[in-house]
Design brief:
Strand order of the largest sheet: 1-2
Helix content: 55-70%
Strand content: 5-15%
Number of domains: 1
Structural class: mainly alpha
């Protein structure tokens, strides 16, 4: 998951133990709370509502990162990589991510026309 230059990592609840790994030192981790623990929070108390708001903020950051991957997989059908070589695969992924940006901005682009 880490390539070595990260200072902050936002991860879902599946990465609960990642903070303890030796290669994870020097990184500020923001790992999501398990869904059952989040449902058990008492949102009427100040601490519970603050923790729930922090979880919402973590989820919003993750959603911004995950959405282009969803567009590439669902809209463009890119679910498996064919072995064409690193250069060709990299070029195809860069093109797909550029197209996903256009796909996500299509409403703004079409609205600006007329």
């Amino acid at each position: 998951m880490l390539h070595g230059e990260e200072t902050v990592v936002f991860a879902d609840a599946g990465y609960q133990g990642s903070v303890k790994r030796p290669e994870a030192t020097g990184v500020n981790w923001h790992v999501a709370m398990r869904p059952g623990k989040r449902r058990a929070l008492n949102k009427n108390l100040p601490l519970g509502s603050l923790l729930d708001k922090a979880e919402q903020l973590k989820a919003s950051v993750r959603a911004k990162v995950e959405h282009p991957f969803r567009v590439i997989k669902c809209q463009f059908g890119f679910t498996k990589v064919r072995y064409k070589g690193l250069a060709k695969n990299t070029a195809q992924l860069i093109t797909l991510f550029a197209l996903s940006n256009v796909w996500m901005a299509r409403r703004h682009l079409l609205g600006a026309r007329g």
